[in-house]
Amino acid sequence: MGLGTLSANNSNLWGQFAPVTGAPFTLGYWYYNLNTSLLGGVTLNDPTNSGSDGFFIYASGGTYVFQAGPGAVTCSAGTATANKWTYILCRATSVSNRWISVLNPDGSIASGQSTTSITPAGVAWLLINGYRDNFIGPLNLGDGIYGEPFVAKADVQPDGLTTQAALIRQLAYKGPWSIPSLVPNIVFYDSFRRGYAPAQGEEVYPQGIKYFANTNCLPAPHPPLAPDYKRPTDNPLELMV
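and the corresponding structure tokens:
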């Protein structure tokens, strides 16, 4: 299963923790977009901040956007396609080098880059299904299904260049745990194979992770993965993190 969300139900999942607070990092997830006119997406920010400080990934204008900081510094890539699975990968190599790469439903890959230097401050929470500027601001929910999100405290491709096609395909279909060099840096992972419910073992990392609030998220279909998709328990290096 995946994490099903509907804007009409105010569906969102809050984590009162930040897997990372700034660059470098890598964030990836599967997304099944049910309504391309809505933003949705994933946010890393400080919900008590009155400004748009943080990192935001969302759909807008028929594409996917990776935004950093209150200055709305963005890069974009891919095609926001309804009713099909898309893999979205965001990389912050440094404060002045950010990439978004999208594995489109037709198998094509598109990437966009921003080289504007910016350092969002006070990143403290994780939000799934919402572009939220601050705690009292608009949530901008989406209609969609999320699967296999992860965050690592390093750039999965540290050369800072365009994401290699083979790399994004491996992350999408075999998972972040299939890349040994990335494993020691993974700080958050949730398969959502159970939708949203308490889980242990191969479904979530780190063990015992707690979300602040689950609002009306429901079990939904899971993205298409390779039979040898790697889980945390498949890799002994996970024990070193």
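(Above: one complete record from the training split.) Residues 43 and 232 are 24 Å apart (CA to CA).
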